[in-house]
Design a protein that fits this description.
Layout: E1 4-7, E2 10-13, E3 18-24, E4 33-39, E5 46-52, E6 57-59, E7 67-72, E8 77-82, E9 91-101, E10 103-108, E11 112-117
Parallel strand pairs: 2-11
Antiparallel strand pairs: 1-3, 3-8, 4-5, 4-9, 5-6, 7-8, 9-10, 9-11
């Protein structure tokens, strides 16, 4: 199992920056995929960015060039650096850990609110 705790959300003006952190309860180097998702009111949860254990990254088109996912294995922490924030980025951001075995297993954090004012 993996416990995930997000932090770093808050209120920021459009054009501003935030860095989200996701602290894991176990070594993240052994987790197949770490990801950040977000869910805005009335919308489905969507993938924002992901990072594989091999170092491959994937970003939603809407955040490419503005968001960066990175990890610190020594701290068992994954980060989401967000710049040039827009009101459309307002959502609850969730950290995800995916483990592959027989099928796959997803673990989620409790979420952190990001609000971007215009």
């Amino acid at each position: 199992q993996v416990q995930l705790v997000e932090s770093g959300g808050g209120l920021v003006q459009a054009g501003g920056s935030l860095r989200l952190s996701c602290a894991a309860s176990r070594s993240i180097s052994s987790i197949n995929i770490m990801g950040w998702y977000r869910q805005a009111p009335g919308k489905q949860r969507e993938l924002v960015a992901s990072l594989t254990s091999g170092g491959n990254t994937n970003y939603a088109d809407s955040v490419k060039g503005r968001f960066t996912i990175a990890r610190d294995n020594a701290k068992n922490t994954v980060y989401l650096q967000m710049i040039s924030l827009k009101p459309d980025d307002t959502a609850v951001y969730y950290c995800n850990a995916r483990l592959y075995g027989v099928g796959h297993y997803d673990y989620w954090g409790q979420g952190t609110q990001v609000t971007v004012s215009s």
